[in-house]
Amino acid sequence: MSAAFLIEQGLNGLQFGVMLFLMAAGLTLIFGVMGVINLAHGALYMVGAFACALVAPEAGFWAGLGAGIVAAAGLGALIELSVIRPLYARDHLDQVLATFALILIVSEGARMVSGGRPLWLDMPAALAGSVTLPGGVPYPVYRLALIGAGLGVGLLLWLLIRQTRLGIRIRAGQADREMIDALGVDIARLYTVVFALGAGLAGLAGAMVGALQSVEVGMGEPVLILAFVIIVIGGIGSIRGAFVAALLVGLTDTAGRIFLPALLALAWPPAEATAIGSALASMSIYVLMAAVLAVRPRGLFPAHG
Amino acid sequence: MAEAAAEIAAPARRRLPEWAVNAAIAAALLAWPLLADAAGEPWWAGLAAKAAILALAGVGLNLALGYGGMVSLGHAAFFGIGGYVAAISADAAFSGAGVLGLPGSDRMLPIWLAAMALSALVALGIGAISLRTEGVYFIMITLAFAQMIYYLAISWPAYGGEDGMPIYLRNGFPGMDTNAPLDFALVCLGALAAALLLSWRLTEARFGRALICARMNPLRLATLGMEPFPVKLAAFVISAAITGLAGALYADLNGYVSPAMLGWHTSGEIIVFVILGGTGRLFGPVAGAVLYVWLETLLGGVTVHWQMGLGLVLLGVVLFGRGGLIGLLCGARRHG
């Protein structure tokens, strides 16, 4: 296992973690501000990927990327206005059920549009090449671009929340929604904006990942579950926690996939070692979550005190 | 708290008495496979078995979710464990190999016992950790534990991995020909009736009152001298055992098990049965599961995109039809 291989896999883990962060940031923002569990967040990720895959062949990748963000954010705003708004006062059970219903509806809608076949999305020509890592291993530029884009969006999000008026309102909404309502902030519109923002982030992640894998119905659900694990590890409502936890989960998952099969191969035949190792790697994330919650029941960075 | 107040303040509108609605549902469910069999439609008798099994899974979850307020998004774990116990036991009996030193069996009664025992044991572990948290964290943690078991099932090549494993011959039940759709449906309905009886007796007993109080006002329960945690844990374990039994029957119904039984979609569907029918109502999950199976069959006959219709119906129930089917017919529940 050479250093170059470790760098390559480390970058893969980082890229995975950064994409998960985009998902988890929206999810944790929506929960932190509105107290809503959005199971349909994975469906918005899928919508972003589908919009990109449908628009990109006609108008190019960058237009597709924009279409992915706009489609997901638009659908997010629509969902907030029509379905989520009546549910703010209800318990989490109703929110779980309503957003579960939304998954069924959006997935079936995507199946109608695509005819149930997976779509393929080409990466933009400018990013299609590869660079040579120290150690002589070629590495795709596109994955590096994803890491850069994810970190850049994370920085923008941080600036938005720390430095702008909207960010002040979002933080105030997390802390005390009645007070900022009394101070004259239109809380209903703030909620719609936050929901659309979270949905747009999911759409962006979906559109970018669409060039690495097939775009198909159900692609959002494994990512959704990982995003849930991340926001629970990071502390629900905390963007910083989501960032740390996303990288932790991305790297743990990738490291598990490399090292566990190799470790098991010492005792088992290679084929079985690979199968068992990759499944144990998927379990390792949940073990990580259970371990974190055992020590800190409210996550690494609890949002409220 | 607000929910409790609403329940007490709900005006007593003129609605059907709940016992009458329950009796009607029970009678209809019993008549369904009998009529289907008499009409020479074994497929419809099989569908009745499916409805009864899904209802049974819902009756299990209802104990935790409806009465105890524990929103578990991980009951697929117990459903799947029950299914795998049935398949592995039948397989071990077929090959004569045994599992972990225990002999396999192709009889339903010992399989049910094992499925319930293993589900209960796993639930004891999951519950002991998960019940330290509440609210959203409880939902997420139960989901995470179920996913853990899901990946374990995928990883285990000996038990079929991603492909699952078949049950070549439906397991036997004394005095019944379980391969006949009518007999199998009656076995499933018998199990459902037993679970409903247990659920009813439990919730009417001191334990059930304590459980309902633990949901509505845990502080009051504690000041009355009862710790909420053990009460909730016990309810969670019993709930898991009932859902595990449903899983064993479901494996027999389909003739195979796959990791999909453990997937989080299954957990979502079991929640749907409970809420569609009426949360915390004795016959709620039964009404919900029957409605679900009919929707699936009828919409599925019209369009391949039946999940779209199902999603819209669900959305309508959440937004406008609080209290589910039983709530619609009998009015809001007074307590519990």
TrEMBL record, chain A:
Location in the cell:
Cell membrane
Which regions span the lipid bilayer? 12-32, 39-56, 62-84, 96-114, 141-161, 187-211, 217-236, 243-268, 274-295
Q: Which UniProt keywords apply?
A: Amino-acid transport, Cell membrane, Membrane, Transmembrane, Transmembrane helix, Transport
Pfam (any one) = BPD_transp_2
> How would you describe this protein's topology in the membrane?
Multi-pass membrane protein
Q: Does the keyword Aminoacyl-tRNA synthetase belong to this entry?
A: no
Q: Which CDD domains match?
A: TM_PBP1_LivH_like
Kindly give the InterPro entries that the UniProt entry links to this protein.
ABC_transp_permease, BCAA_transport_permease
Similarity field: Belongs to the binding-protein-dependent transport system permease family. LivHM subfamily.
Protein name in UniProt:
Branched-chain amino acid ABC transporter permease
Taxonomic source organism: Paralimibaculum aggregatum
Lineage of source species: Bacteria, Pseudomonadati, Pseudomonadota, Alphaproteobacteria, Rhodobacterales
UniProtKB/TrEMBL annotation, chain B:
User: Major location, coarse class?
Assistant: membrane
- According to the record, the segments passing through the membrane are 19-36, 42-65, 77-97, 109-129, 136-159, 179-200, 229-250, 256-276, 283-306, 312-332
What are the UniProt keywords, alphabetically? Cell membrane, Membrane, Transmembrane, Transmembrane helix
Q: How does it sit in the membrane?
A: Multi-pass membrane protein
Pfam families xrefs: BPD_transp_2
State the compartments where it is located. Cell membrane
Name of protein: Branched-chain amino acid ABC transporter permease
Q: Which organism is it from?
A: Paralimibaculum aggregatum
